[in-house]
């Protein structure tokens, strides 16, 4: 699957870039310039930047065209609004790099982001290299260079999937903050018309990789915004996430990997329980698809048995903060009586 070469590839007389950077662009006029500038300031310069204007209603398309006129490495694709997956797929169809990375248009990267990921891939002949993400709101929090000790971990793709499903945080489910060898996308694209497209594809991409190298340096800046999908009122479209995991379960079972499939089943069940609580909290539980419905009691019971105490307390605080104090007191009483509680 993996081509053991890290030199530029010449095709039809044209020198191809090592890395294709794909940035889907939609309704982020306020944040787009910092994103593009952070890419153009990279210490690693052998890349092409593909900006996909996904029918943005603001001035994003004009801004993309403006940058294209100033740097020959930039290509702009304009298309009707079809969503994040379609924008990424459009970039994949047009890319010419040996590797590809995805950057969201309201995020930023440290100036050595590409250098870090590329050097990791080259050193270990890895199909995927991963760096750590950091959240920011204030521009003053931006990292000029990747922060960390330079430590790395080299594992198989299947181990990476297990780590992801176990919430070890070293390999997030996000498509961003990773560098992929192009062959991983030979027969794979992101699902269109769905939320949580990363959940549907990133586990498969990791699974197909022989080697994954993890850098513990923070090089990808993830902008947190109150208006983002993850910070808005719960919408039953979030159950696309569960459907995405179910697709991965079938994929792992078809590849006869019981261990990874079981880990995906646990992720699915945890999501079902959490989403049940969110749906009740925001009074949309009646809109939940019938096949995914469960009671609050069932959801809390599952989470209590399958999360650590800190994890359970954290989730309880998000969905039922008034229940938090009784929960803490109950645990103290159980410990006093010698009753075992999850750790």
UniProtKB/TrEMBL annotation:
Glycosyltransferase 2-like domain sequence ranges: 20-149
Claim: Transferase is one of the keywords in the record: yes
Protein name (record): Glycosyltransferase family 2 protein
Taxonomic superkingdom: Bacteria
InterPro entries from the UniProt entry: Glyco_trans_2-like, Nucleotide-diphossugar_trans
GO molecular function: glycosyltransferase activity
Keyword Transferase tagged: yes
Keywords: Glycosyltransferase, Transferase
Pfam families: Glycos_transf_2
